[in-house]
Amino acid sequence: MVGRLAAHALRARRRRLRDYSGIVIRARGVEKRYGDKRVLRGVGFDVSRDGFLLVTGSNGSGKTTLLRLCAGLAIPTAGELDVAPERGRIGYLAHEPLVYRELTAVENLDLYGRLYRVAERRERIGMLLERFGLWDARHERADSYSRGMLQRLALCRALLHDPELLVLDEPYSGLDEEGAVLLDRELDERRASCAFVVATHDPARIDLLATSKLALS
Prior knowledge:
Helix content: 25-40%
CATH topology of the largest domain: Rossmann fold
Strand order of the largest sheet: 5-6-7-3-8
Number of strands: 8
Low-confidence stretches: 1-14
Strand content: 15-25%
Mean pLDDT: 92
Radius of gyration: 17 Å
Structural class: alpha/beta
Number of domains: 2
Oligomer: single chain
């Protein structure tokens, strides 16, 4: 089993070198199992460099699993999945904010900025905190934030390194209407320069941005 996974990972790395003429993600017959449980079966799609894939489906349909595969956090059990950008050029938003609760917003983003070697990170951190309405709370610890504020901070983290591919799992979760409008603006402004894979239970909100759709069942 370990040998098979290692061989699959090697093939995946080799596929990143192929040129699919502007395709950022190419999936063919992708399957994912956890033990005897099959989560995904025969999934296929393409996402171009300026594409916006809208992923929908009921709870348990495999949306989160698919997004983890696209973000490079898991390996398909079968099929082919070619993700062109390297891991450091992908912005990933999970169900959990993935921020350190004992650190302030500025400290969190500065840590991630160092990790991704973001140029002029202090200026970029300030810009994102202002855009998402967190500037006045920038020196407060994340454990004092509301659920909506944590989601805004998580979005700042995902966008900090100006990724080529954004993989967003329920990005509107926890946001109030003001926060949702801020995210609407951010997605609309970035869609010409970034590829997106977005899973949501509220597809109508971003339906006009989508260039393709994938319904999982």
